[in-house]
Amino acid sequence: MRAGGISSLLLPFRAVICDSHSLLPSVDILEIWVMGGASKLLMSYAPGFVTSEYTGDSIDMASLPLNFRKIVVSALSSNFREATKLVNVSMLQPREGELLIKNRYVGINASDVNFSAGRYGPVNQLPIDIGFEGVGEVVARGGGCEHFQIGSAVAFMSGHAFSEYMLLPVKYAILLPEVQPEYVSLLASGLTAAISLEKIGEIKAGENILVTAAAGGTGQFAGSM
Q1: Model pTM?
Q2: Within 13 Å of residue 137, how many CA atoms lie on the same side as its CB?
Q3: Peptide bond connecting 127 to the previous residue in cis, omega within 30 degrees of 0
């Protein structure tokens, strides 16, 4: 693959391809061709997308940077690189019922491309955050979040994942035993397969089902359940 985009861009989390390649390991070069009709959407944010590994060290607000970087959708376009830009913003302060998360691994899905193209309905205001799922660690917490410790590993499904740091309502945080990229693929792809088969389809032992697009992320989970 060609290394394109912003070649000097470094963000301290890794990308985990969760859609058609959900079982692949995390990648350092975030460059994904997504085929949609006649269009090709290049998602490329260059070599060195990861700069640090999870160490398990606890972090408090005093040790956090004053600013951090995130990717936002600044214009609706079927070209992901033209739709998004990298911005620097001020550090966030968690309020009651919120966790401040430092992202370590984030999922890359076709949904991100569809969202930045405006295919999920009208967007009332731009710029807007993007990224639907990830795994990170708690670096600060507001009141009412005492069952999460500083340094706790969490998974989440939220619209702010393509960011070094993000605020997460505690009710959406899934406590994990450790920070590992494999948990990312269990979120959108894994849950979609499980809910479709077990809750909606109510599949019973001995029944036969047809899984379309079985090579995709959701399809692979469905075929292994």
Answers
A1: 0.72
A2: 19
A3: yes
